[in-house]
Amino acid sequence: MGGVHSRECHTIAKDIWQWCIEKQIWLTAAHIPGTKNVEADRESRVFSDNKEWMIRSDIFQQITDIWGEPSIDLFASRLNHQVPCYVSWKPDPGAAFIDAFSVTWDKHLFYAFPPFSLIARCLQKIQTDCAEGLMIVPMWPTQSWYPKLLRMLVAAPRVLPQQRTALQMPGMPQEVHPLFRKMPGSKPTVVKFEAYPDNPNICVVTNLKAYLNRTSSLRGGAQQLFISHYKPFKPVSRDTISRWVKAVMQKSGIDVNLFKPHSTRAAATSKALLKSVPLEHILSVAGWSSSDTFAKFYSKPVINTDSFSNVLLQE
After folding, report:
1. Which domain of life is it from (predicted)?
2. Do the bridges between strand 87-88 and strand 97-98 make them parallel or antiparallel, or are there none, so unpaired?
3. Which residues of 107-130 are buried (b: 16+ CB within 10 A; e: fewer)?
């Protein structure tokens, strides 16, 4: 009987051989061409890479810079694991374990980017094992697991950049995740602003022209509208714009502990509907594709066709 490189396999082979001797069974080995070895090889030949999506490595690094390096990747494979120790969902030659739900999570600072259908089960597992780690989930407030997720947070969540390549397929870095195409803002949108000549001080068009004129010499090749007012005058992030809006709200006497920058979106659209701006016009301006949620809470009879911006500014 020959040997193998794996001690475990060698031990198993010896046990089988010994059992056969005791039962007076004679074993012979024969080669079967791969094309005919269908049943035994079925699972090893089943492969679908559409489940191999992963967070881009530089984004993952930013996450670990904030919360520390995880010791295990719970939902991964040999193609997309973010740390050396990982758990696969099927037999994998490099995996430390198979099936994340078959191991305890409390012994590790885990990293989990689970299939969306398993998020609720993951939250239950975290509670059961009293585990702590990093989990990537969609911002999906309508899901039943979302309130539970918020209650279980031990630190403020971070919103990942909404970029076409934030999620990558191993070996195909330019492939775009199907969900990205459904996200608001994933497609270029033309925004039209109407002038408000009654009061140039609050006219969007007048102020944008003045802003572009004042920043023209600082922009360089920047295409983004808003840039930093400090050198080197680079395009600002969404968080920076949010801080600017919050500062203006605070100076206007608005309680920023109660109302957040995003509240301006709800306030503006609700006021427009109250002033009888057509719902379809509000949806267009706000970039909403469905009126279901908005109409449920703010539906009012339409009595005229005043423009969205003029209605808000005439106060």
Report:
1. Eukaryota
2. parallel
3. ebbbbbbbeeeebbebbebbeeee
Is residue 292 classed as helix, strand or coil in its secondary structure? helix
Residue with tokens 């996200």: 183
The values of phi and psi at residue 283, to 5°, are -60, -40
The dihedral of CA 298, 303, 307, 312: what is its sign? negative
- Residue 72 main-chain phi, psi, to 5 deg: -155, 145
**Torsion angle, alpha carbons of 9, 13, 19, 21, to 10:** -160
- The pTM for the full model equals 0.46
Q: What are φ and ψ of residue 134, in 5° steps?
A: -115, 130
Q: Tokens in use for 218?
A: 């600082």
Are the CB atoms for 272 and 311 separated by under 8 Å? Answer: yes
CB 312 within 8 A of CB 268: yes
Q: Coil, strand or helix: which one is 14?
A: helix
DSSP helix/strand/coil, 285? helix
Structure tokens at 304: 């005229």
Measured CA to CA in angstroms, residue 7 lies from 3, 4, 28, 44, 251 at distances of 9, 7, 21, 22, 72
Stretch 229-257: mean pLDDT: 84
Does pLDDT of 21 surpass 50?
yes
Highest mean pLDDT (candidates 106-120, 179-193, 264-278): 106-120
Tokens 């995880």 locate to: 70
Question: CA 32 to CA 46: how far, in whole Å?
Answer: 19
Pick from 81, 70, 80, 77: nearest CA to 109: 70
**What does the alpha-carbon distance between residue 220 and residue 125 come to, in Å, rounded to a whole number?**
51
Q: Report DSSP state, residue 225.
A: S
**Short-list 300, 241, 305, 307, CA closest to 273:** 300
Going by pLDDT thresholds of 50, 70 and 90, the confidence category of residue 100 is: very high
